[in-house]
Amino acid sequence: MMDSVTGLISGAAGGGAQANEGVEEGGGVRRRVPPIELKLVPLEEGSEVTLNSDVMILQRQMDRRKAVVYLTLSGLLIFTTAFLLGYVAFRGMCRLCGNDGELIPLSDAAGAQHAPEGGVMYMAELREMLKKYLTEERIESTLRRVSRASHPPGSSEGNAVAREILQNLQNLRMDHTWTDSHYATLQFPSRTQPNTLWLVNSEGEELEEIPLDSEGYCAYSATGTATGGVVYVNYGRREDFEQLRALGIALNGSIAVARVGGAVSFAEKVWHAQEAGHVGVLIYPDPADVPQDPRRLGLHSNAVISEHVHLGSGDPFTPGFPSFNHTQFPSTQSSGLPIIPAQPISANVASKLLSQLSGSSCPRGWQGRLPYVQCVLGPGFTGPGERRVKMAVYNTMKPVLLNNIFASIEGKIEPDHYIIIGAQRDSWGPGAVKSGVGTALLMELARTFSNMVENGFSPRRSLLFVSWDGGEFGNVGATEWLEGYLTMLHLKAVAYFSLDQAILGDDILSVYSSPLLADLIEGAIKQVEHPKHTGQSILSLVQRQGGWRNIVKPLYLNSGAYSFTAFGGVPAMQLHFTEDARSYPFVNTQLDSVGRLQELLQGRLGSVGRAVAELVGLMVLKLSHDQILPLDVTCYSNTVQQLSSKLNQHTAQLQWVFSARGDYSRAAKNLHEAIKNSDIQDERLARLYNTRIMRVEYYFLSQYVSVVETPFRHVFNGRGDHTLSALADHVSLLRSAPHLFNEARFRRQLALFTWTLQGAANALSGDVWNIDNPL
Question: Where are the alpha helices (DSSP H) in 340-469?
């Protein structure tokens, strides 16, 4: 460039000046400034320098013309830009007209998505795009591939399924795809010494062996032998054991026989039996709860249902810590591990034992439907001689490498905030419902959202799709990942959707959810057609059952979503389509196959799967699209108010609970009003509000209990003495059993709950100078 510049003063004048080429800044735009060109005229000796005025005038006129042209073009450019910006802004603020002239609601206009061609996409268009790309055929074909054989963690079949899922996610061209590995300790049946059950005499001599299913077992059972009389404990609920004590039944040293169901997990049954003094537990499926006619979609009478008995989640030998291979842990184990053996038995085995019991008759409502069994509690046996039962459990522990598989679509505005969709991948049996349904829905949603992005969808927040390993053993893979990122998830994770066991029928929808997410379901179910009733929305049928709020229930311990809320402080949801409580009895058995599920649904597996995928997809779409997260922060103030009114009936010492509840209610209301009166188009302001909303569940994790000893620290959804339910149960003793009320324990419970609630109120208020704490 310098060779072409003529503005150089050369040696004839005895000196020189160099033309300058630089960069000029203006209006935030950097532009290159051309070099100044100086033409030097040789002077005669003794003459004076004179400037040609005509040339100067002509040059000024040309400069003025250039300025006029420049100003005119600049004005047109500014006017056009302002007009376009104003038009787009006006369209975003007002109601919008679609191609057919139909008005689109304001809520659909917020946060318009820009298509690659320069157009805009609104929520109504995104909903239609979601419905367009979801397919029934892929759901069913994926389900059949995943459920073709048993695939427990660490097995060759399990690794093959994992590789196939990873490859399929990579083929979708996600922004990021990776795996997360953990070494966890799992328990399996012994290959050399099977579990056994015997009838023995008073001397302990074995009289008769009762055959057991070799594949049925309770993971994380205590090992060894236990001998004692037999007591029938109904469902093994806390209230069942209280009723047995009231009847004067001797429980210490006996073996409990409990039936499946009663809204309590195997782990809870074993825990309650252990607290009552039993030395072992046998769990069976009663025909009153689980259909047992194999010709009509029922279990056969020799089938057993297997389930883990760890009262917790994750690897029980690294409680509170992630099981990464490079991390060292203290020598400890979960307090939720049972210290008594547990074993699943069939209805036939239960019938053989219970038909020989002697003692008091069962309370009303305890009678099952076992053949030839009169409901008697035990613990003795009829007939000559004193007989007892001896059970032996020889399960073995084994370290297994678990692999969680992740894929993500990165958000365009808030990429560090993400909505997580996950499903269990492993299964002891074929696992059509246990793992296949969730995996098929996960892959279909990943494919659908990937196609939507390629066709113009630009999510505001990131989407994270996860296939979890070790789910059969208490959501081990998911919990280990939560433990690894526990300190930052409340800053990153907007919500979690579990797809596990989403299809158990095709008639009744049940939602197990954090209260913050409950309102999302209303918007989704009114837009999705019911899979069994063509032409009717799910909402229209739900309203006949008493309204949509009746289908929303609290998260339960064995739910794939429970740990996210109760342990991680992340709003979470899991939903099921069922026929009724007894619709599909094959979960956790070797009979959980695609053929049986398809038979139950009468060939509608694909349509039911598509309905579930659409429900979850619409909720995920809204969370990833709206500028302000659609989470109801006021829900917990209502929960506290309802329980506080019950507490108030027992004691007047709870004014601090009421005070904290009032502070939280005011903070939630003030945040709601502030958002309503703010310019949510302001990205900085919207992010500040969203950060406070995202942390609400985390605020309710008690900071005063150990995450190692009490992992489920949530004061509403957790388990332990710090929870509101534990406080309410203890206070109720003032009326039912005053001698059992412990004032020191009560004061501790009151402090734990109250200060957690007060801390949540203070955090929700925002900055410390916004906290309303009047004298």
Answer: 347-354, 437-454
Rounded Cα distance between 443 and 631, Å, is: 26
Quick one: CA torsion of 313, 316, 321, 323, rounded to 10 degrees? -100
Q: Which amino acid is at 265?
A: S
Contacts with 642 (C-beta within 8 Å, 6 or more apart), sequence order: none
pLDDT 10s digits, 712-735:
999 999 999 999 889 888 888 888
DSSP string, 543-583: HHTT-GGGGEE---TTSTTHHHHHTT---EEEEEEESSTTS
DSSP H or E stretch at residue 200: strand 196-200
CA nearest 344: which of 394, 251, 281? Answer: 281
The answer to whether residues 538 and 513 touch, using CB atoms and an 8 Å cutoff, is no
Kindly state the tokens that stand for 273: 């039996």
- How far is it, in rounded angstroms, from Cα 478 to Cα 471? 8
The answer for residues whose C-beta is within 8 angstroms of residue 748's C-beta and 6 or more apart is 721
- Residue 480 in tokens: 């280990």
In this structure, how many other beta carbons lie within 10 angstroms of the beta carbon of residue 467?
29
Q: What radius of gyration do the chain's Cα atoms show? A: 34
Grouping H, G, I as helix, E, B as strand and the rest as coil, residue 357 is strand
Q: What domains sit in the chain, N to C, each tagged with a CATH number?
A: 1-47 (no CATH), 128-176+401-625 (3.40.630.10), 196-317+337-392 (3.50.30.30), 635-770 (1.20.930.40)
pLDDT in tens, 401-424: 999 999 999 999 999 999 999 999
